[in-house]
Amino acid sequence: MASLSRFIPEPKTAAIVGCPFSGGQPKAGVDEGPIRIVEAGIIPQLEDLGWKVKFDGHHEFENISASLTSDPPIGKLKNPRLVSQVTEAVAKAVGAHAQNGELPVTIGGDHSLAMGTISGTLSHYPNACVVWVDAHADINTVETTDSGNIHGMPVSFLLGIGSKVPEFSWVKPLLKPDSIVYIGLRDVDAGEKQILREHNIKAFSMHEVDRYGIGKVVEMALDHVNPKRDRPIHLSFDVDALDPSVAPSTGTPVRGGLTFREGHYICEAVYETGLLVALDLMEVNPSLKDPVDVEQTVAVGCSLLRSALGETLL
């Protein structure tokens, strides 16, 4: 089943990068997401699809936390040193897997981690493009953020926009505005809307999904960032892109999101290109909602990962 891949050599290996991290936002519990997804059997599920799966245990960020005696805000930014050091460690891990010819599957944790995962991908595949599936644009800058929660800011760091924060000097602005495309947006701050317009960043909100249907939206998104279908793709999927009726256990749910099938279709279509080189699944928070909702959200998370790695309906 796991045939199709232009960049990942046989025998194809998926490297699970478990990131139990919640420092980019205020709600506890999102650090449990990767643990629950692994416990739910994602490793044998991917092996059943023909992947070799490498998993050496979840990343231990405790040593980073322990080494930080204090982490006062920088401007509005909360936990800046912790987030910087953790995302830098993640960048190194993801970059090393990419270097080895493996496909890193990063399970978060909060979406600030994408600062690390995408940096890691770009360190090995400098011409990679990013398909970012999310209710939120996560492109606030130091100037535009209201909350100071860094999970709402990773894209601005990756693009190098907004004023520089010395603590994040390790993040090289390797991502170009025409190399990222959004699908599923529906809760975008005023400052973020302005940034998307100013930098001419392509975004397909739920309005376009309603208008054109998900098949056409994915095609248009790929036409934008990958017109010749020859660039490696990094898929970064925040479960809050899905409607809360589909994935309730997440920190910032927004009504009117992608259906179960729309979310899966994006993953299936990206896999079908044969260009996927890295995959993130972020913001599953098993401490929010009741056990039934949690189980449903964890199951959906596993199912999205399987779809992105080649599971088909027939």
TrEMBL record:
Residues annotated for Mn(2+) binding in this entry: 111, 134, 136, 138, 238, 240
InterPro entries membership: Arginase (IPR014033), Ureohydrolase (IPR006035), Ureohydrolase_dom_sf (IPR023696), Ureohydrolase_Mn_BS (IPR020855)
UniProt-recorded Gene Ontology molecular function terms: arginase activity; manganese ion binding
Gene Ontology BP term (one): urea cycle
Family stated for the protein in its record: Belongs to the arginase family.
Keyword flag Metal-binding: yes
Reactions catalysed: L-arginine + H2O = urea + L-ornithine
Cofactor: Mn(2+)
Presence of keyword Manganese: yes
Keywords assigned by UniProt, alphabetized: Arginine metabolism, Hydrolase, Manganese, Metal-binding
Species of the source: Candolleomyces aberdarensis
CDD domains linked to this entry: Arginase
NCBIfam families to which the protein is assigned, alphabetical: rocF_arginase (TIGR01229)
Pathway: Nitrogen metabolism; urea cycle; L-ornithine and urea from L-arginine: step 1/1
Cofactor note: Binds 2 manganese ions per subunit.
Transmembrane segments: none
One Pfam family linked to the record: Arginase
One GO cellular component, as annotated: nucleus
SUPFAM superfamilies: Arginase/deacetylase
UniProt EC number: 3.5.3.1
Gene3D superfamilies associated with the record: Ureohydrolase domain
Protein name, UniProt field: Arginase
PROSITE patterns assigned to the protein according to its UniProt record, in alphabetical order: ARGINASE_1, ARGINASE_2
Lineage, highest ranks first: Eukaryota, Fungi, Dikarya, Basidiomycota, Agaricomycotina
